[in-house]
Design goal:
alpha/beta; Endonuclease, Chain A; two-stranded parallel sheet; elongated
Length: about 180
């Protein structure tokens, strides 16, 4: 474990998820190398993705995880909401009780949607390399974690794993460079 003032620490056990999930939650740009990834962590990444850029290198991601990460934001609920609001507005207008007007509600809906999508903006990119990459790295702007834990539920919560956490700028930058070497 870490000593006071030391920017490096390590963890051996079944709770690797704590520092890894914190790193993902705290970063604006998150870089991940994990040969295996499951749908549990694909969902976690999408939940935490708002306002972030996430790049993932994985040699053997499960198919459900890939579907989750590649899924586009659904327009169905947005369109359904627009149809409902416009229908209610039209109904209120035809009954003659009152109406905000077709244009006003549409404008309100468009502004609301733009604000929602602005705050939900994220980017997730996945690369599957030709050669099998067995490294495990989790990196953001301020810290990096590397060790034996895959980004799977078992790897983070059940298996006994070893990870090292560093906040040393030089080491974080070296691991970022290694990530981009693998990325390209």
């Amino acid at each position: 474990m870490a000593s006071p003032g030391n920017p490096n620490s390590y963890y051996i056990g079944q709770e690797c998820y704590k520092p890894v999930e914190k790193l993902i939650s705290d970063g604006k740009e998150v870089l991940i190398v994990s040969p295996y990834m499951d749908s549990y962590y694909a969902k976690f990444l999408i939940e935490k993705a708002s306002g972030r850029k996430i790049r993932i290198i994985s040699s053997s991601m499960d198919s459900e995880a890939m579907k989750i990460l590649k899924r586009k934001r659904p327009l169905g609920p947005l369109l359904a909401g627009l149809v409902i609001i416009l229908s209610l507005d039209y109904l209120a207008y035809t009954v003659g009780k009152f109406s905000f007007g077709f244009g006003f509600l549409s404008l309100l809906l468009v502004i609301s949607c733009l604000l929602i999508f602005k705050f939900k903006k994220y980017e997730v990119e996945v690369k599957i390399p030709r050669e099998f990459v067995h490294a495990k790295m989790y990196i953001n702007e301020r810290e990096a974690i590397h060790g034996s834990a895959n980004l799977t539920y078992n790897g983070m919560h059940k298996n006994v794993e070893h990870i090292e956490v560093t906040r040393e700028k030089e080491r974080v930058e070296k691991l970022r460079e290694e990530f981009f070497r693998l990325w390209n």
